[in-house]
Give the backbone structure.
Amino acid sequence: MLTHPLLLGHRGARAEKAVPENTLPSFDLALAQGCDGFEFDVRLSADGQAVICHDASVHGIEIVQSTAERLALPLLREVLTRYHSSAFLDIELKVPGLEKITADLLRDHTPSRGYVVSSFLPEVLRTTHEIDATIPLGLICETRAQFNLWPKLPVEYVIPHYKLVRQSVVVKIKAAGKKTLVWTVNAAGDMKRFSGWGVDGIISDHPKRLVRASGGKEKDRSHGFARIFTDTSL
């Protein structure tokens, strides 16, 4: 049983410049540094593939107008296959049109450590729910207006930007039987405060800092063991 919130790397280990965000090495690093899983972004290529990328274009190429082969980005299928038994996955759908593709892939590669399909777009969440009502969904909120939509949507998770979060907000979400994931939390003091308020998960660009601040463990996968950090310096 976890004694800390779910610890999730934002786009993997986004702050680590040694590896590009939203790539398999970045996801591996977030897990190696002790996170329970990671958040990542999914877009739709011109040939109907679910590809991993935050922005609408990569290297000057529009994702929606290019084939997955030309884009040379990781595929959602690859991520689900590689991490279905080792990580909690926060799968953010950036655009409509991915709902059935994602549902079909999740049916074949269900993450055993848990997952949420998240989006800023209410219509994406509604469509996904219509396709498969068993898929756990999460509404991402950056503004108060977006946040106010969550009671009207078929979501299990509310995913507010950290600036929207107050202790009363966490209590309200919990009282409604929902879970709170907070993003993107990069200051150690905020990590500790949200953890103390009982949020269900914290998403951060800094996996190592998140793990240390939350009293978790950093895993040294090259030696196959987990080591508890007693050093409180961040």
Observations:
- DSSP finds nine helices and 13 strands in the chain.
- The longest helix spans residues 99-108.
